């Protein structure tokens, strides 16, 4: 559910680092997407002020490699940061719309979980034991109810995330909500009924993107949109079986060649169908909340079966064998109690190591292969993160090094300590015992 989206905020030159605020986050996000002049900022990264940080604009670096050529950000980007947590403002949700004139295509891109955001983890990712009837009005307070298998429902966390995207994240320039912007594209003859609209996102957004698309679909269809699609990856289960049936009947699997017939399928790209969830079979996140208990095979000396790694001492074996197994079984029980069901339209793929990734701690490209033995919580999280993030370049056959990181010269620490504390609070894994043993 996590991404490496950091909470980076601007700090005025010569001043002490100031607390994060959404406008600073939005400004950084905007430059990280489009920054043709290679503008630099004085920024504040995890408590450290950095002068003249170079910000690399994504579309400025890779448009020549993208289908259709030049893509332009036409709405947003916008960032939401929970206003009730003023001491630790993080980028809890982020969103933008990009357009390609050659393909007559509009893409709604929704961000994944910010690994540093307790709000994302607790209020959006893990809030699955209460439900919200679907459809719901995102502009009104959510009516949280008990699970009911007879009506369409989505998890409380999914409903909250979608509500934030549609009602609390207006375009910074025009003030238009995402829904208003998309309907006005056709009303103002900017788009036509032949235009293509795709909702996409990874992890948390792998649940938010299909739910957002289904919630907006009636209004968008009424406005004249005929070609609406979704492309979620690594998404957890957003709703129950009735919701899944609604989604499946509305968004039928469609070959990508139908949407963009002029684009040849890249060699090695297995993502050939839209309206389909793509997920790594070794990834724990898309197994939430229906396939978690089978994810970890606990046998002495071989704790995490999917990764074929062994503990290096008995305490770690106890923690990751018995403790993690209990945690995953508990989490699946939440999904069972809420009648959750994975999207029927889904494709599982297998990936491989090594994984090439950008290491913000060293500001350099690195390769990762799982160790033969696991030595601690951070070691396990390293593996999970690479499977959940790094291996998802493979099904698209994307060259990772072609995509410049947003902060190519700025060192950024990892957030594993904060994540470990969150998981400890959520599941009570007994991590304190492990930490004490390795102190």
Automatic annotation (TrEMBL):
InterPro entries in the cross-refs: AB_hydrolase_fold
Gene3D superfamilies: alpha/beta hydrolase
Bias kind Polar residues: ranges: 1-14
Region of interest: Disordered: 1-23
Superkingdom as given in the UniProt entry: Bacteria
Protein name listed in UniProt: Fungal lipase-like domain-containing protein
């Amino acid at each position: 559910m996590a991404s490496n989206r950091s909470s980076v905020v601007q700090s005025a030159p010569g001043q002490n680092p100031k607390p994060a605020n959404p406008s600073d986050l939005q400004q950084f996000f905007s430059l990280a997407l489009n920054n043709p002049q290679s503008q630099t900022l004085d920024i504040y990264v995890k408590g450290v002020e950095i002068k003249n940080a170079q910000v690399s604009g994504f579309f400025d670096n890779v448009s020549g490699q993208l289908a259709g050529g030049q893509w332009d950000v036409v709405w947003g980007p916008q960032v939401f940061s929970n206003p009730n947590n003023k001491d630790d403002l993080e980028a809890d949700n982020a969103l933008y719309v990009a357009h390609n004139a050659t393909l007559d295509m509009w893409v709604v891109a929704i961000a994944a979980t910010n690994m540093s955001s307790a709000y994302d983890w607790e209020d959006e990712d893990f809030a699955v034991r209460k439900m919200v009837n679907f459809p719901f009005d995102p502009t009104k307070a959510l009516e949280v109810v008990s699970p009911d298998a007879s009506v369409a429902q989505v998890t409380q966390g999914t409903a909250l995330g979608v509500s934030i995207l549609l009602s609390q994240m207006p375009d910074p320039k025009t003030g238009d909500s995402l829904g208003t912007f998309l309907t006005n594209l056709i009303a103002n003859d900017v788009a036509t009924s032949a235009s293509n609209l795709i909702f996409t996102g990874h992890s948390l957004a792998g649940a938010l993107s299909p739910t957002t698309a289904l919630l907006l679909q009636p209004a968008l269809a009424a406005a004249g949109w005929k070609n609406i699609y979704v492309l979620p990856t690594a998404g957890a289960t957003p709703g129950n079986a009735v919701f899944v049936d609604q989604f499946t009947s509305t968004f039928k699997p469609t070959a990508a060649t139908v949407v963009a017939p002029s684009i040849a399928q890249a060699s090695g790209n297995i993502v050939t169908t839209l309206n389909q969830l793509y997920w790594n079979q070794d990834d724990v996140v898309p197994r939430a909340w229906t396939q978690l208990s089978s994810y970890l095979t606990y046998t002495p000396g071989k704790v995490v079966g999917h990764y074929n790694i062994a503990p290096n001492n008995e305490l770690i074996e106890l923690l990751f064998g018995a403790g993690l197994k209990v945690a995953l079984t508990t989490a699946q029980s939440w999904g069972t109690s809420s009648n959750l069901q994975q999207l029927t339209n889904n494709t599982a793929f297998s990936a491989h190591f090594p994984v090439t990734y950008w290491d913000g701690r060293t500001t350099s490209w690195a390769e990762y292969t799982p160790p033969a033995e696991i030595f601690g919580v951070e070691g396990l999280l390293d593996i999970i993160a690479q499977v959940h993030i790094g291996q998802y370049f493979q099904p698209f056959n994307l060259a990772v090094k072609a995509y410049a990181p947003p902060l190519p010269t700025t060192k950024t620490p990892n957030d594993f300590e904060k994540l470990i504390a969150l998981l400890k609070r959520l599941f009570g894994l007994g991590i304190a015992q492990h930490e004490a043993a390795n102190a």
